[in-house]
Amino acid sequence: MTAILVADDSQTVRMDLADTFEAAGFRVFSCATAAEARTTLRTHSIAAAVIDPKMSDGLALIEQIRGEHVLRELPVLALARSEELREDLVAAVDCVGKPYDRTYVVARIRELVGAPPVRDSILVIASDDSTELVTTLTRAGFVTTVSATGVEGLQHAATARPTALIIGATSDMDAPSVIRRLRQTPALRTTPCLAFGNAGAELKA
Asked: What is the 3-state secondary structure (H, E, C) of the chain?
């Protein structure tokens, strides 16, 4: 399993990126300090690093990686805008500012480590026959999964992290209730949802 190092002094960021990368199939080593990151780089085979240069000793960590023969080619994604870094470092790392887009961060890391791109995934939550919808989405290039109940759909969304959800009527909860539950899960709070009520009125959240 491809290993990613995440070095950030924010526990929220570390947990968020760890959950995101693990859902994408990566192994994650989370480090709260540059010292922890250095130890991890010495003791594990790391394919890429995501580092906040504004954490204590963060810039020095990036400089050390670029200065060491063994680590010089390690892909580094800096959690900062390019204008926040010195010109020589901008040329040596990739940059993404905070707040970051999880989908972009994962896609960029996959590109940096040479992993094949992942197709967008759609989760359809509906009790009625969704065959035609699934067929249409599949033909459009989406990986599509169907859950017949709200509870099943919420559980699947929490583990699979789909790109977007399409929510219809289910036997155990209505679409607005499913969306409210989704928005209570930090990792799914910004996931696009398209819902259709019983009366056929389109709702977006």
From this structure: CCEEEEECCCHHHHHHHHHHHHHCCCEEEEECCHHHHHHHHHHCCCCEEEECCCCCCHHHHHHHHHHCCCCCCCCEEECCCHHHCCHHHHCCCEECCCCCCHHHHHHHHHHHCCCCCCCCEEEEECCCCCHHHHHHHHHCCCEEEEECCHHHHHHHHHHHCCCEEEECCCCCCCHHHHHHHHHCCHHHCCCCEEEECCCCCEEEC
